[in-house]
Design brief:
Layout (H helix, E strand, L loop, with lengths): L1 H15 L5 E2 L1 H9 L5 E2 L11 H6 L6 E2 L7 H16 L4 E2 L2 H13 L14
Parallel strand pairs: 1-2, 3-4
């Protein structure tokens, strides 16, 4: 729950900036209860379309934030499948709520014009 609260503000920022949010059942419910729009997707072990694995394979996801909530075998298996697929399909993956917050805040703070390419010896 603490991780979801940590991500609540940044998720709202993403929605406000026209990013589409996909969330599995528990996260979708939490976001809905807090007035944040998201599209619910199934866990990878659910054979119905659309599940998180389908969307990753189809490259409909640009960033995966996957933070395990418990150590049950079902949770660990689904989380592993999502994280493995993100890596296999070259989709950025964040598995820590504080890091996810910092990453999204950096998107808000900096524009492409602020980021200059430099040679190693210029740093």
């Amino acid at each position: 729950m603490r991780d979801k609260i940590e991500l609540q503000k940044i998720t709202q920022w993403l929605v406000d900036h026209k990013f589409e949010i996909y969330a599995t059942k528990g996260s979708h419910l939490f976001l809905s209860e807090n007035g944040i729009a998201s599209t619910q997707v199934n866990w990878p072990d659910v054979a119905e379309y659309s599940n998180a694995l389908d969307l990753i394979r189809e490259k409909k996801i640009d960033l995966v934030i996957n933070i395990p909530k418990n150590l049950s075998s079902e949770e660990l298996s689904n989380d592993y499948t999502i994280r493995r697929a993100a890596v296999d399909f070259n989709i950025p993956l964040i598995s820590n709520a504080r890091l996810a917050s910092a990453f999204i805040y950096s998107i808000d703070r900096y524009n492409l014009e602020d980021l200059k390419i430099k040679a190693w010896d210029e740093y």
